[in-house]
Fold these 2 entries.
Entry 1:
Amino acid sequence: MTFRFCPKCGERLTLKPMGDDGDTPFCEKCGNPWFEMFSSAVIVLVVNEFGEAALLRQNYISEKFRNLVSGYMKPGETAEETVRREVLEEIGVEMTDLRLVGTYWFAKKDMLMIGFIGKAKKADFTFSQEVDGAEWIPVEDAIKLVHPKGSVSYALLDEYLKRSISAKFIEKIKPIKWFENSGTSTDKYLLVRSVYDAYDNWNAKYLEVWEPPICLLEKLAVEIIGSDALDDIFDTVSFAIDEDIWREWTAFRERGLSEQSGLDEEIVDMVKRDLCWAAVEYVLNRTGFFTALLEIYKDGYFPCGWDGVYPNGRAAVM
Ligand SMILES: [Zn+2]
């Protein structure tokens, strides 16, 4: 919304150059610029401990689609305060956790929407008069009942589903005893005893075997879930396992390696990359090269190359 009269004193505004913003409506009397105005609103996906979303029926918004809790911000409120107030007002639920997901421009209403995911204990709802009803519905089903792809509701539910799949993957790999058998001879794999050996001698082979499945998987993932979601998986999984991998790699170095190679960072990155790609296969619900590598990690080794012509031969491991 562009102002033509001063909202404070009613004076007709003139245009005044304002740095990078260019000509801007200005009140000579108050000495104030009046930049274009838009409203801000919050929208929140409230999920309970059973993975169910609070979906609202609000016939004044849509008779066809269900809604998430949303509402306009009031001056003086933070977006988080607005969310807590609206959730309490509209469905009578108190949230235990609240995270910002992103912001969305809603062109139809000239409005900035600030999107959150909140957690709450499952409880009966009490409605405000703006709400015709509400139900707890499993997130997988809820995504089919809100405005379709392109809407903020859809984006939030989609985000939650993606995150919960990554979280399931992280739970799955948490019990792995990383590098437990590193340095111990095995018939199953070719054991590499030195980091130099692993990194220098096996690197060409590593690239030759690892790169094609990475290219294929990346292309597929971008097509199916998009590059933002792919980045999210990498961020989430790397962050979740970083500490464990470093700790266990350092422990192996101390008990089994005499050399100070200065290649620790590279090795840890290789491990994390394998696991992130394994997570991508998990999210895409397909098994492939990295799901197979996960078995080597479960055996307590680090796959650093390949002995033979892949897929024949066997993994070279540390
Ligand atoms: Zn004025």
Entry 2:
Amino acid sequence: MEEKKEPVKPTKKIKLNCAKCGKKLEQKEALIHKNIDGKQEIICHDCFKEATGVDYKTFMYRREAAKQTLFATIFCIAVTIYAFVAEGWEYGVAGIFITILIFLFSAKVK
Ligand SMILES: [Zn+2]
């Protein structure tokens, strides 16, 4: 028996359209955005900006900054606890002070 073998087709690029303006999007350009109803829709950068009031880069920057602040704060708290236990309460207090400073500073940067 002869088996028919079809040549392997290159995987089709998924074509996406913006749910708001209908613009064709490359996969890397497509943004998943939750609308007011909580439904996910695929939109373009322009519509994202329109919907959220910030452009996507700013949004990502803010999100990244918030994440970094969180990590820095957690790290400082951990160091503070360690200092408190290992070195004494004076270091613990200093650690809390530094943690608050870092937190305030990164909140201001945003
Ligand atoms: Zn759009």
